[in-house]
Write a structure and sequence with these properties.
By secondary structure, the protein is α/β, with parallel strands linked by helices. The chain has one domain: 3-Layer(aba) Sandwich (Carbamate kinase). A nine-stranded mixed β-sheet has the order 4-3-5-2-1-6-10-11-9, with helices on both faces. A two-stranded antiparallel ribbon has the order 7-8. The structure holds guanosine-5'-triphosphate. The site of guanosine-5'-triphosphate has 9 residues, from strand 4. Pathway: Pyrimidine metabolism; CTP biosynthesis via de novo pathway; UDP from UMP (UMPK route): step 1/1.
Length: 240
């Protein structure tokens, strides 16, 4: 065991992160980086669930599905998360990390269906549980799925791995003068219009008092620092 501050966490990885520098699909180097981070969390004895996005494969109505009916586009996005989940499962198991994939849309030939109590049992047995297919419903983002699953399994915190160091007042990729916040409240996130997650996900966190840490997944040491309570990235809570 280790000096981890948390017993159970949910890691949200966006599809975009998985695409790495190639901007589309799964970058094997990035997949490896993320798998190493997850292995590190698991090796610290922390029970780990993962929700993965799908934007690296299918961007939804804002991109590939322009002009398409929203519900169809959203289902296609959910299928994209299943591809990512299977890729992540594969690399984790190659690294010796036991995993289970649970899908919110039944496809029993390739993954277990989502059953809350079974997911908790897997976590207790120190398996990494990867939740695929979002919430299984259109109109809900994978960020919202992450918050929902985190609450259902009793995670103490959501770790949101991104390509940047935390939450900034402007886009740090476009403006080098952007300033990073080290802490925020969910209310401030809404008030300032900061684009961390969609507003459904943010209010769900706020209403249920679930803290969120946004950090750079590309920095190797970050995950260990986050788990031992070192200040990394931006922490967002209900109140300061
Ligand atoms: P415990 O009984 O708690 O030890 O969990 P377990 O996951 O090892 O038991 P189970 O017998 O349910 O699963 C054995 C394997 O089959 C695991 O790799 C599961 O992920 C997989 N599995 C279980 N249910 C399904 C399913 O509905 N579809 C698919 N494709 N695989 C499943």
């Amino acid at each position: 065991m280790s000096d981890a501050k948390y017993r159970r966490v949910l890691l949200k990885v966006s599809g975009e992160v998985l695409a790495g520098d190639q901007g589309y699909g799964i970058d094997p180097k990035m997949l490896d980086t993320i798998a190493e981070e997850i292995k590190e969390i698991a090796s610290m004895g922390v029970e780990t669930a993962v929700v993965i996005g799908g934007g690296n494969i299918f961007r939804g109505i804002a991109g590939s599905a322009a002009g398409m009916e929203r519900t169809s586009a959203d289902y296609m996005g959910m299928l994209a998360t299943v591809l990512n989940a299977l890729a992540l499962q594969n690399i984790l198991e190659k690294k010796g990390v036991f995993t289970r994939v649970q899908s919110a849309i039944e496809m029993k030939e390739l993954a277990e269906g989502y059953i809350r109590r079974k997911a908790i049992r897997h976590l207790e047995k120190k398996r990494v549980v990867i939740f695929a297919a979002g919430t299984g419903n259109p109109y809900f983002s994978t960020d919202t799925a992450a918050v929902l699953r985190a609450m259902e399994i009793g995670a103490e915190v959501i770790l949101k791995g991104t390509k940047v160091d935390g939450v900034f007042d402007r886009d740090p990729m476009k403006d080098p003068a952007a300033r990073k916040f080290s802490e925020l409240t969910f209310f401030e996130v809404i008030e300032k219009g900061l684009k961390i997650m969609d507003s459904t996900a943010v209010t769900l966190c706020m209403d249920n008092n679930l803290p969120l840490i946004v950090f750079n997944v590309k920095e190797k040491e970050n995950i260990r620092k986050v788990l031992t309570g070192e200040r990394v990235g931006t922490i967002i809570r209900k109140s300061r």
